[in-house]
Amino acid sequence: MEQDVKIRITDREGVTHEVLAPTDMAMNLMEVVRSYELAPEGTIGTCGGMAMCASCQCYVVSDTELPEMQDDEEAMLSEAFYVKDNSRLGCQIHITHALEGLEVELAPES
Ligand code: FES
Predict the structure, then answer these.
(1) Which domains does the chain possess?
(2) Residue 73 C-alpha to ligand 1 middle, in angstroms?
């Protein structure tokens, strides 16, 4: 059980889900959203997690400290729609213990 962190994800319909994400399966946040089917198939993770589609964009609502953005994430977000100051690409956020209590909202489909 301690392998899991609790994350709150608000889907594109505005419904908030509290999910448990495993820290020992090399998953990222986009894959967690997919595994809980919080966004319709084909609308998230379309590039397979390569920071090339922005379909996994989310807004970070909690003040959880996240790993710094890498250049490819920053570049993708500079071209994406609906980007806000707290936008991140879910596929670039790996599930670690540091994410306990993270709250995110999925960005609209673009
Ligand atoms: S899945 Fe394509 S950018 Fe994250």
Answers:
(1) 4-106 (3.10.20.30)
(2) 9
What are 13-37's pLDDT values in tens digits?
999 999 999 999 999 999 999 999 9
SS (H, E, C) the chain: CCCEEEEEEECCCCCEEEEEEECCCCCEHHHHHHHCCCCCCCCCCCCCCCCCCCCCEEEECCCCCCCCCCHHHHHHHHHCCCCCCCEEEHHHCECCHHHCCCEEEECCCC
Ligand 1: atom nearest CA of 73 is: 3
pTM: 0.96
Q: Which of 32, 34, 44, 55 to mutate to test the pocket of ligand 1 (most atoms within 8 A of CB)?
A: 55
